[in-house]
Design a protein that fits this description.
Blueprint (H helix, E strand, L loop, with lengths): L1 E3 L8 E2 L2 E3 L2 E3 L5 E6 L6 E6 L3 H18 L4 H30 L3 H18 L2 H4 L4 E6 L2 E9 L2 E5 L7 H12 L3 E5 L6 H12 L7 E3 L4 H9 L3 E7 L2 H13 L3 E5 L4 E5 L5 H13 L9 E7 L6 H9 L19 H17 L2 E4 L18 E4 L6 H4 L6 E7 L2 H10 L2 E2 L1 E5 L3 H10 L4 E4 L15 E2 L2 E2 L6 H7 L1 E9 L18
Parallel strand pairs: 2-6, 9-10, 9-12, 10-11, 12-13, 14-15, 14-20, 15-18, 17-18, 20-21
Antiparallel strand pairs: 1-5, 3-4, 5-6, 7-8, 8-24, 13-23, 16-17, 19-22
The structure holds nicotinamide-adenine-dinucleotide (NAD).
The site of nicotinamide-adenine-dinucleotide (NAD) has 28 residues, from α7 and α8.
Length: 508
């Protein structure tokens, strides 16, 4: 996986760092290949930044904060307007690169960029989002108001599965609030992220306001402990997110960690059969199951258990191929290691005694024989003590359980360690209302399989899927990226009565 600098093929692109407004070559000796998961072609080398480079990035962000925080809100807003226009113009180009480095289909890659673009559009509303509050006459001639001020240097650490959307959850909202930013993209697919960063500079983000360092644990730990970093946004697995949350918190940062998932879809017998089965197949196998909001567990309630053979038939029709090929439904998983991990979990499921109704292990894709492909895979007769139920598989694998009632389904979902997303499929408003009230999950979909909220709401999560109280984007992230200051003010005029010295706390 890692290569030494001197062995790098000179003809292959080296991903740059962004420090103080300049795209620079890293001086590191540690590099990693960025590969196309459908072909294993090496697309680029990504550096693991040195201590000095991380330091330079943070210092540049620290220095830029002094002027950026005073930049008028309208100027910051107009940069976001320009950025959204540039992303829109370049959306197809970015999607092609994203598909090549990550594996997802081109239309899905366009969706990845588009969902991030929507956050940039929303960032342009910062004029109203960052307003404080004001109360007149809280005491005689005394007013109290709040200022929402930027916190300083913020850091962002992103996962491989949405290399456009998730960086765009972070840096536009952070910098439009007046902060400066150091981004650490996923080392597995940093190319499309870097295209977005280039557009941000073209849109007018001044030097030092946005910096990028690449790497793994060492870079992440350095950012979580640096004295100048005030806030850390993390999206990725539960193990790493928990580490980031603890390390950052111990060092006095505010931290938001959005983490792993095991998303259930609960199907009641009164649901619309065709729409529901289409939704399950799409949300279970789309993006090769590598969405944090992918449906990974289907809970069939009562007689909806009879729909299982039809779900298997729908899954069989999905076309496994390279993401760049037209009409592909399921691309490869991101790496050989990811494929091995998913295959290992399928093997575990077989050993645990689940029934393998559809086995995607031996899929061969003509012309892409080296790709990291796994076909749609479905297990039934799954129980909650099995590893395939408890572990986030992050591949095109659906596990199916059966229960007798909605109450049982709710209890089952609430016992799972994760709390990211859930869907209920029903025609009953009463059942849906009960479900949304009793379920302990961040994102709830009613006849919607992947209920990712639009950017004027906020992404959330519960239990093992989230640490920290404020989520990415929307109003919550404006709170996360700003600190509140209250000002209590009194002004004297000629009519103000001199009350003399008062040594008691005010009684009114
Ligand atoms: P990951 O946790 O392996 O990596 C995330 C980031 O952490 C990367 O930038 C990586 O370089 C860094 N990292 C990896 N190991 C580290 C370590 N030991 N110490 C410090 N940093 C480390 O996650 P991934 O495989 O890139 O992404 C998939 C995961 O992300 C899944 O669990 C998925 O559910 C989750 N995810 C969650 C959300 C959400 O909003 N809840 C969204 C997308 C993805």
């Amino acid at each position: 996986m890692n290569a030494v600098a001197k062995e790098l093929n000179a003809g292959i692109q080296k991903v740059k760092l962004l420090i103080n407004g300049e795209f620079v070559d890293s001086r590191t000796t540690e590099w990693r290949e960025v590969t196309n998961p459908a072909t294993q072609e090496v697309l680029a080398y990504v550096p693991f930044a040195t201590r000095e480079e991380i330091e330079a990035a943070v210092q540049s962000a620290h220095a830029a904060f002094a002027t950026w925080k005073k930049t008028p809100i309208g100027t910051r807003m107009r940069i976001m307007l320009k950025l959204q226009a540039l992303i829109r113009e370049n959306l197809q180009r970015i999607a092609v690169t994203l598909s090549a480095e990550q594996g997802k289909t081109i239309p899905d890659a366009e969706g990845d960029v588009f969902r991030g673009l929507e956050v940039v559009e929303h960032a342009a509303s910062i004029g109203t989002l960052q307003q404080g509050e004001f109360s007149e006459n809280v005491a005689g001639a005394v007013d109290t108001y709040t200022l929402r001020q930027p916190v300083g240097v913020c850091a962002g650490i992103t996962p491989f599965n949405f290399p456009a959307m998730i960086p765009l959850w972070m840096f536009p909202m952070a910098i439009v609030c007046g902060n400066t930013f150091v981004l650490k993209p996923s080392e597995q697919d940093p190319l499309s992220t870097m295209m977005l960063v280039e557009l941000a500079l073209q849109a007018g983000v001044p030097k030092g306001v946005l910096n990028v360092v690449h790497g793994g644990k060492e870079v992440v730990d350095a950012l979580c402990t640096h004295e100048h970093v005030k806030a850390v946004s993390f999206v990725g697995s539960t193990a790493v997110g928990t580490h980031v949350y603890r390390l950052g918190s111990e060092h006095g940062k505010r931290v938001q960690s959005m983490m792993g998932a095991k998303n259930h879809a609960v199907v009641l017998p009164d649901a619309n059969r065709e729409h529901t089965l289409n939704a399950l197949a799409g949300a279970g196998f789309g993006a090769a199951g590598q969405r944090c909001m992918a449906t990974s567990v289907v809970v069939l309630v009562g007689s909806s258990a009879q729909w299982l053979p039809e779900l298997v038939e729908k899954a069989k029709l999905l076309k496994v191929n390279a993401g760049s090929e037209p009409n592909t439904d399921i691309g490869p998983v991101v790496s050989r290691a990811a494929r091995q991990r998913v295959l290992g979990l399928i093997e575990t499921g077989v050993k645990e005694g689940a029934t393998l109704l559809l086995d995607g292990r031996d899929v061969v894709v003509k012309g892409y024989e080296d790709g990291n492909f796994i076909g749609p895979t479905i297990f039934s007769d799954v129980t909650t003590d099995m590893d395939i139920y408890k572990t986030e598989i992050f591949g095109p694998v659906l596990v199916v359980l059966q229960v007798a009632t909605l109450d049982e389904a709710i209890a089952l979902v609430n016992r799972n360690p994760f709390g990211n997303g859930v869907g209920l499929f029903t025609q009953s408003g009463a059942a849906a209302r009960k479900f949304q009230s009793e379920i302990d999950i961040g994102q709830v979909g009613i006849n919607i399989p992947i209920p990712v909220p639009v950017p004027y709401f906020s992404f959330t999560g519960s239990r093992g899927s989230k640490l920290g109280d404020l989520g990415p984007y929307g109003k919550q992230v404006v709170q996360f990226y700003t600190q509140t200051k209250t000002v209590t003010a009194r002004w004297f005029d000629d009519a103000t009565v001199n009350e003399g010295v008062n040594t008691t706390i005010s009684l009114r």
